[in-house]
Amino acid sequence: MTQEILVNDAEGIRIDLYLSRCCEDFSRSYLQKLLKDGCVLIDGHAVKSSYKVTSGQTIFLTLPEPQKPEILPEELNLDVLYEDKDILIVNKPKGMVVHPAAGHFSGTLVNGLMAHCREELSGINGVLRPGIVHRIDKDTTGALIVCKNDQAHRDIAEQLKIHSITRVYCAIVHGRILEDNGTVDAPIGRHPVDRKKMSINEKNGKAAVTHFHVIRRFQRFTYIECRLETGRTHQIRVHMASIGHPLLGDVVYGPAKCPISGLEGQTLHAKIIGINHPRTHEYLEVHAPLPQYFEELLKKLK
């Protein structure tokens, strides 16, 4: 299978770095292997990892035929915030991929869940995503629901579908937001050119609503809390970028170069998740503490 990727706003960036930003499901080492194997073409010629892309070019990325991998349990010392016989809620760390995909067959949340839960994981989403009913991005931290059986999975999936789940995120964005509260109500769909990205898409997008509240203002940034009415892919990242306040560290929807040295990926944390329990139907709300890097960054900005 060959994918076409149009290069946007990326003058002089190494192609392996650019591809790792566009193809979040693939590790950089896997993409570098594809480059080494001649699977990445520009103007009909294979290019190496050190090749620097130019805006307007089209990258042709050929993926090898998928082989059915063996997903093995791994003891990953998961931070479990809540657990019973139907569900568990984990505090996902930064940099951890939720489920296996090309280039990521170990070290994922699923690998850790298979060791932690043994055979007690829902099977609705198949062998690569046991227990996974929703996901958050690799560099987003915080609360994530995992289902131990199919009945719980179907119940939580329905709550996700009707947008009845409470989801509150913390984020740091570029610029000083002047109003204390605001709402972004704009449909989100696939980017018309870059298929790895999402965008405000009035024609083909799905309804998306994000409410934000300012917690603290810094000289060049703002610390905010976001409450989701809907749960579209990259919703907070796309919505905040659309109003001129992209997330700090988000090189996909914000500046190509992060202004904070050493920061990798967007500063976004799933702080609160609230559901009606799939068995008791009583409301359950779980809070995930801010990760250490986020706390230290707030102190640095202050």
Write the layout of secondary structure elements.
Elements: E1 2-6, H1 15-22, H2 28-36, E2 40-42, E3 45-46, E4 58-62, E5 80-83, E6 87-92, H3 109-117, E7 141-147, H4 150-161, E8 166-174, E9 181-185, E10 188-190, E11 198-200, E12 209-217, E13 221-228, H5 235-242, E14 268-276, E15 283-287, H6 292-301
Parallel strand pairs: 7-14
Antiparallel strand pairs: 1-4, 2-3, 2-4, 5-6, 6-7, 8-13, 8-14, 9-12, 10-11, 12-13, 14-15
What features would you describe in this structure?
With 302 residues, this protein is an alpha+beta fold. It folds into 3 domains: 2-62, RNA-binding S4 domain (Structural Genomics Hypothetical 15.5 Kd Protein In mrcA-pckA Intergenic Region, Chain A); 72-162, Pseudouridine synthase, CATH 3.30.2350.10; 167-269 and 296-301, Pseudouridine synthase, CATH 3.30.2350. It has helices spanning 15-22, 28-36, 109-117, 150-161, 235-242, 292-301; strands at 2-6, 40-42, 45-46, 58-62, 80-83, 87-92, 141-147, 166-174, 181-185, 188-190, 198-200, 209-217, 221-228, 268-276, 283-287. The strands form 3 sheets. Strands 5, 6, 7, 8, 9, 12, 13, 14 and 15 form a 9-stranded mixed sheet that branches. It has a 4-stranded antiparallel sheet with strand order 1-4-2-3, with no helix packed on it. Helix 1 (15-22) packs across helix 2 (28-36). It is globular, with a radius of gyration of 20 Å. The mean pLDDT is 91.
CATH hierarchy class name of the largest domain: Alpha Beta
Net shape:
globular
Give the strand content.
25-35%
CATH architecture of the largest domain: 2-Layer Sandwich
Say what oligomer this is. Answer: single chain
Count of distinct strands: 15
Briefly note the CATH topology name of the largest domain. Answer: Pseudouridine synthase
Mean pLDDT: 91
Helix fraction by DSSP (H/I, runs of at least 4): 10-25%
| Number of H/I helices | 6
Terminal Cα separation, in Å?
Answer: 48 Å
Element-level helix/strand string:
EHHEEEEEHEHEEEEEEHEEH
Structural class: alpha+beta
